[in-house]
Amino acid sequence: MSSTLQDKDIVAQAQHALSMHQLCDYCLGRLFAKLESGMSNKSRGKKLRAACKQSTKTLVRDCWLCQGLFDELPSFTILITRALEPYEFDTFLIGSKIDEDTIERETSLWGEVGNEHAEPIKVEINRELGKVLETQLHKEVDFEDPTVMVILDTAFDVVTFRLNHYLSTDGTKNTPVLFRKPNGFVRSAGEKDAGDATILEHCTTRVYKSSLLPVF
Predict the structure, then answer these.
(1) Are residues 45 and 90 in the same domain?
(2) Same domain, 154 and 179
(3) Residue 75 and residue 23 in one domain
(4) What whole-number distance in Å separates Cα of residue 183 and Cα of residue 29?
(5) CA distances in angstroms from 118 to 24, 32, 78, listed in the order given
(6) What CA–CA distance (Å, rounded) separates 124 from 130?
(7) In this predicted structure, what is the pLDDT of residue 161?
(8) Pairing state of beta strands 204-208 and 158-163?
(9) Residues 79, 54: Cα–Cα separation, whole Å
(10) How many folded domains does the chain comprise?
(11) Does 2 reside within a domain?
């Protein structure tokens, strides 16, 4: 029989984690990401915190592990949306680079309480961003053959992406797409001017948050 979040050993594992560190619901729940499908890690964390009878909630900004990273998801979403805005594409996939110190803290936590049911923080970041962006972009995530592969560097707020292939009007791949070239974007490799439009044979774009978002 598979484990559930209500099992005594699972609750004891969660209690041990909470006794060692202040963890937000995302980071607590992610330790048990493989249990009880159909809910977010945040929901798992809330459920386990209640089972541990911990009345005080740890805010994301106070979390020992992520140190506020999940509070930045809305800003990351805006950054990626604006970076992709000028491009024609059908599907996408999100990847991320997480600060090494965060990865080390997560690895340390796994060593303390176990990782049998856990998933890495970057997997959760990629999934949460993908879910929001599917709605906002009206595009689908494609794990096998995405049109656009997006890499978000969460430490420096930089988006790098590559157009893996292009779509023509009849849906044929490997055909360059024409689009207007707006100001303020840095592009490299294979650009050819075509009047008001640009054909990109290969494209890697770096977009910095500081140049796109207002100061909060």
Answers:
(1) no
(2) yes
(3) no
(4) 42
(5) 15, 5, 28
(6) 10
(7) 80
(8) antiparallel
(9) 36
(10) 2
(11) no
pLDDT grade for 166, boundaries at 50, 70 and 90: low
CA distance 72 to 155: 11
Q: Has residue 108 been placed in a domain?
A: no
Burial class (CB in 10 A: 0-12, 13-18, 19+), 73: middle
Residues 198 and 94 in one domain: yes
Separation between Cα atoms, residue 64 and residue 173, nearest integer Å: 45
Domain match, 14 and 36 both: yes
Residues 86 and 167 in one domain: yes
Same-domain status, 56 and 19? yes
Rg for the chain, CA atoms, rounded: 20
> pLDDT tens-digit profile of 6-41?
999 999 999 999 999 999 999 999 999 999 999 999
Q: Residue written as tokens 């656009």?
A: 148
Range of the domain at 23: 8-62
Instruction: Report the candidate in 146, 19, 37 with the shortest Cα–Cα distance to residue 5.
Output: 37
Q: Give the residue from 167, 162, 143, 32 showing the smallest Cα distance to 89.
A: 167
What pLDDT, in 10s, does the model give residues 43-58? 999 999 999 999 899 9
Residue 201 lies in a domain: yes
Structure tokens at 174: 């490997």
Closest CA to 174 of 164, 183, 182: 164
Block residue for tokens 């100001």: 183
Residue 127: per-residue pLDDT: 97
The answer to whether residue 20 is domain-embedded is yes
